[in-house]
Amino acid sequence: MNHLYQYSTMGALVGGLFEGTFKMSEVLKSGNYGIGTMDGLDGELIIIEGKPYLIESNGNIREVDAEERTPFASMIEFKPTHTLNYKEILNKEQMDEIILEEIEGMNYFHAVKITGKFKLIKARAVKKQKKPYPKLVEAVKEQGYFDYTDTTGTLFGFYTPHFIQGVGVGGYHVHYLSDDGKEGGHVFDYEIEDVSVEMALAEDLILKMPETETYRQNDLNNPDMLKDIEASE
Ligand SMILES: [Zn+2]
């Protein structure tokens, strides 16, 4: 069985709880693949084969230290149950549909890993915020945007059922890192060229809440949360 570990929630991020609360060394114990962001909503985190990398808003990419902390991450010990191979150009929308159908995953969390050649990757990366932290809708207004063409690498992320919006982001949330470690980010569109698509359903979810004073003191029951998530994506 594949367990999905979720560290904090979208609801908390929407409310501006950007402070890193979970140590990377702890997070890495729950899986070898994952995505997230770092302290202060700093960039786009991707964990590949147990190694965490951060794509910063200026496009710089670096390895993340075990002592650094994340405010939000999703992790899985990735054991694919379905694999498909494609040697044709298909876009994100087409792939999302194919994956969802193949894995019958609409009502489950699932993980997706696409490796190989991409014709196009359209990515962005959130910018590190300063205290006092703004709400997410404000924080995402200034981001780095990157277009990569003819790139080889790993796209990894999760599907969250839309009825669980607020714990995660409903639908697909995927990050990318090229094999040379120079290109990556939060992917909002892509075109595959010659890739392998691996998938795994997560039959359960382990949700880790931050054990901090800030988390205890903030009322995150925001009636506009769903609207805010939509506006931030
Ligand atoms: Zn992201």
TrEMBL record:
Tagged with keyword Lyase: yes
Signal peptide: none
CDD domains assigned to the protein according to its UniProt record, in alphabetical order: acetolactate_decarboxylase
Reaction catalyzed: (2S)-2-acetolactate + H(+) = (R)-acetoin + CO2
MF terms (GO), sorted A to Z: acetolactate decarboxylase activity
Listed pathway(s): Polyol metabolism; (R,R)-butane-2,3-diol biosynthesis; (R,R)-butane-2,3-diol from pyruvate: step 2/3
Keywords noted in UniProt: Acetoin biosynthesis, Decarboxylase, Lyase
Chain segments annotated as coiled-coil in the UniProt record: none
Its EC number(s): 4.1.1.5
Superkingdom of the organism of origin: Bacteria
Record protein name field: Alpha-acetolactate decarboxylase
Organism whose genome encodes this protein: Macrococcus psychrotolerans
Originating gene: budA
